[in-house]
Amino acid sequence: MSLKLEVCDDNDMHRTFTILSSAFGHEHPYIDAVFPSHATVAGREIGGERLRAIKHSDPNTTFLKITDTDTGEMIAQAKWNIYDGEVPEAVELDGDFWAGEEEKEYARYLFREYLVPRRAAIEDSGGHLVSLDILTVDPKHQRRGAGRMLVEWGTAIADKMGVAAVVEASKYGMPLYQSAGFEFVHHHVIDLPDKWAGRDKQTFTWMVRPKKTVD
Q: Among 87, 110, 161, 191, which residue has the least CB neighbours within 10 Å?
């Protein structure tokens, strides 16, 4: 079976979100909070529309897909952010997707805190950075090389630009990212205020792939 990498179009966004939801499940408090009810039919429909809106509003974002050419099925997706000399304004999470104000407040808190290392890297680089925002493979199609194809697309751009690449890695993604040249920096834990002390904490490993020396 052969795999093909392409840039997503608008019609791919629902499938993109379905893969994201299926791959993350309910192991990541950040995903559960930012995309409420993401495992439901209605939640995935809304999630796809939200990704479509990001695709149109963020000029630094590129959504990618991997398709199995034998079946025509989209089996993996990634969202790369490419910053070429401009530090964008910080984005605040907003909308009417949550059941109440407390859930929205909690989602906004996680969203803001999750992006602290990335935001610092963008600013420290003067807006010269490549960031792997999200990469997921349909659980039914893992270990076929789709994830590596999506990673190598972004690292090739980073090398061409002569900049570093960064990623918030889950424990499942770390081996792939390490094999692509990303290095461990620190284990990041989002501490919660006392009022949410009973909720699970979101963690990830902050990894950086140093820029390549340009001869």
A: 191
